[in-house]
Amino acid sequence: MKDIGFVTSGDGAQLQCFQDYKAWLDEEIYLRFLDRVDLTAFKAIVVPDFSNQDLLRRHARQLNDYLAQGGFLIVFEPNRMDEWLDVVSVQWFSRETEDWKWWMRPGGRMEAYQPEPLHPMAKAIPLADMCWHFFGAFRFPEAATPILNLDNDEGCLMFDLPVDGGGRLIASTIDPHTHHGRRFMPATTRFLNGFYPWLKAEVQTRG
Asked: What is the DSSP track for 103-153?
């Protein structure tokens, strides 16, 4: 079995990310031809931010089946997974970053924090490397473990949810691949530099 499959819509930023992190990724999967791929051959599948919405909806059943059959699915927003993921309930709501230029201001911060006890991913990626901006937020699922929350727990920007049948979903409303692949917003590069080694170790440890 392969460790990690990386789904791409053909977007240049996504293609660049695959090249940059292929030391930790096993295969590039073209979303348009997802129905030709046996997703169960992968321990984890990553759907990067700004993937093609029409294609995600077209192949929604395959992604849902993968998760329901025990797969590990990691989805970055803005992919509006609440519209195509039905194996689990993902409740998204509209909420934008209060100050999109917070990082340009002395002492500025994005209104988010890593809840204690820290999720293992948060131990690998510090808060500063998870903050640039976000697109919407989630109502926090009761069975999930939070990774990144809005202040006052108004919403969750990233969570880790076990799924009936042994599956696992990490859902996020941040967009590291788009920024890294287009070479702006340095925090996104630091995020992915921590994320992919963590994910590789995670799937190998858990088998």
From this structure: GGSTT---SEE-PSSPPHHHHHS-GGGT-S--EEEEPPPTT-EEEEEEGGG
* Domains detected in the chain: 2-206 (3.40.50.880)
Q: Is the CA virtual torsion 149, 155, 159, 161 positive or negative?
A: positive
Per-residue pLDDT tens over the stretch 179-198: 999 998 999 999 999 999 99
- Condensed to tens digits (0 to 9), the pLDDT of residues 107-116 reads 899 999 999 9
Q: What is the pTM of this model?
A: 0.96
**Over residues 126-138, mean pLDDT:** 95
Residues in the chain: 207
Q: Buried b vs exposed e over 112-121: b needs ≥16 C-beta within 10 Å?
A: bbbbeeebeb
DSSP 45: E
Number of H helices, E strands in the chain: 6, 10
